[in-house]
Amino acid sequence: MATATTDETTHSPGDAAAPTPAPAAPVEPGIDLAWLAERIEYRRFQDCVHCGLCTASCPTYIETGNENDSPRGRIYLMRAVTDGRLRMSDEVRTHLNLCLDCRACETACPSGVQYGRLIEPFKVAMEQSASPGQKTGPLQRLILRHLFPYRRRVKLALAPARVLQRLGVLDLGESLGLTKLLPTTLRRMQAMLPTLGESPRKLPSVLPPIGPRRAKVALFLGCVSDAMYPETNAATARVLQQNGCEVVIPPGQACCGAIHYHSGVEGPALALARQNIETFLGDDFDAVIVNAAGCGAMLKDYTHLLHNTETRASAERFVAKVKDVSEFLVALGPVPPTHPLPLKVTYHDACHLCHAQGIRSQPRQLLEMIPGLELLPLEESEICCGAAGTYNLTQPEMSERLGRRKMDRIEATGADLVATGNVGCLLQIARKIKERGSKIEIAHPIDLLDRAYGGTGAKGA
Ligand code: SF4
Ligand code: SF4
Questions:
Q1: Taking 50 as the threshold, does the pLDDT of residue 57 lie above it?
Q2: Cβ within 8 Å of residue 95, ≥6 positions away
Q3: 146 CA distance to ligand 2 centroid (A)?
Q4: Can you tell me the distance from the alpha carbon of 64 to that of 66, in angstroms, rounded to the nearest whole number?
Q5: What is the Å distance from ligand 2's center to 188 Cα?
Q6: Is residue 17 over pLDDT 50?
Q7: Which of 25, 109, 156, 264 has the fewest CB atoms within 10 Å, measured from its CB?
Q8: Rounded to the nearest 5°, which phi and psi values hold at 44?
Q9: Average pLDDT for residues 246-270, to the nearest whole number?
Q10: What is the C-alpha separation between 59 and 54, in angstroms, rounded?
Q11: Which residue in 226, 252, 236 sits closest to 329, CA to CA?
Q12: What is the pLDDT of residue 66?
């Protein structure tokens, strides 16, 4: 177990009843503390009163039972490093890197600890200070920083995969074990590929409302989500039109920046944030609609990300407009769908929708509006499926464990279909469905709503 040079296992430094420890000489931090101090307010560490009420909801603690893999343990480690009592050793890195940044601990915490505001800058600083042996590998870096955040590059990269998939070559390669010859990262990416449909037609830049106009909205397309599930973006536009929205797709929009930020590069993430703010504030939209939970959480965090910059005021105006599609529709008052979907459906809460954005009831409300659809409860619906952005590439073993756990719970419901509102969860659960040869279908809730309005709604897996 990683330990701080001062024993903090029974009390915090702010605890008046605790004996005052002898000051210890600061250790070599192994991380840029000045950089971190500009980004983390120290009081955020002090918000944690070490009660441990968060541990039971932490997926990594549930799996390992190790205090250092719990929210409380990680806050201890980060604070000890910040205080100069603990070096950012390989062992500390391992425990912090294993964190999914799912933020289930924030939901569970009665003291309002904003854990994401601690771990996210820490992970950036860890990547910046990593030695060559600790850094993300060059292939992974190339994919995470130069491929995934760029919609057109991902689409281009998927073109040959689409052809090979259609010819059955990928399935054949898999059954013959040839895909094992690929580098690990590529092998995992290949295993996660959903069934790619026809090359989708580009959405027009403006789609008119159906019926009287109730709102003018901008649609945020995302990068990986638009490349992997373009049909879901088309379904989202149709659903919004059905609900009286004029839908605009601003061409200048970019990736939300989450992939760069979570892989440890802050500069390009900030540049993408500024580009999106400028693009979406360029017209008078009532809302900026997002259908991918991870992107929505990142876009809503722009105020914090840019809090030290001259862009802060625009970021605040932008963030006030960002809405998850389910959040927006429920607030607008959704038009009841009329086409029955006789399906048993269970719903998995994407972490960045339920924990980061507090959106739980709205997707369920939309599903329950669909005639013939029966919504079944899912045990541990708020526990991460192991996708967590790019976690399934960087921490494959824990990602696998959580994926299996999620799939066991889904199968136990007896549902025909699992619905979830995030591209990472769709890919992760779809892969598990495929691996098990299960007949369960997977879809975004908006795809189901689209089908219930008479649209085609993407199939997902
Ligand atoms: S529940 Fe909150 S205050 Fe309690 S240990 Fe966890 S993070 Fe700290
Ligand atoms: S973000 Fe998730 S994995 Fe990380 S400490 Fe919190 S609950 Fe655990």
A1: yes
A2: 2, 66, 68, 69, 73, 74, 77
A3: 27
A4: 5
A5: 23
A6: no
A7: 25
A8: -65, -35
A9: 88
A10: 10
A11: 236
A12: 97
Question: What residues flank ligand 2, with Cβ below 6 Å?
Answer: 58-60, 71, 74, 99-105, 115
Decide if 89 contacts 337 (C-beta within 8 A).
no
* Amino acid identity for residue 353 in this structure: L
- How many helices and strands in the chain, by DSSP H and E? 25, 9
CA distances from 27 to 5, 33, 86, 94, 367 (A): 9, 12, 6, 19, 54
Ligand nearest to the CA of 95: 2
Q: Give pTM, 2 decimals.
A: 0.85
Distance from residue 69's CA to the centre of ligand 2 (Å)? 8
To which residue do tokens 């000489």 refer?
25
* Ligand 1 pocket residue status of 118, Cβ below 6 Å: no
In terms of Cα–Cα distance, which of 414, 422, 358 is closest to 389? 422
Structure confidence at residue 261 as a pLDDT band (50, 70, 90): confident
Task: Give pLDDT tens digits for 179-228.
Answer: 665 666 666 666 666 776 666 678 899 999 999 999 999 999 998 878 88
Instruction: Determine the residue of 44, 58, 68, 398 to mutate for testing ligand 2's pocket, defined as the one with the most ligand atoms within 8 A of the Cβ atom.
Output: 58
Poorest-pLDDT segment among 38-52, 131-145, 218-232: 131-145
Nearest to 199 by CA among 253, 158, 250: 158
Answer yes or no: are the C-beta atoms of 346 and 317 closer than 8 Å. Answer: no
357-367 tens-digit pLDDT: 999 999 999 99
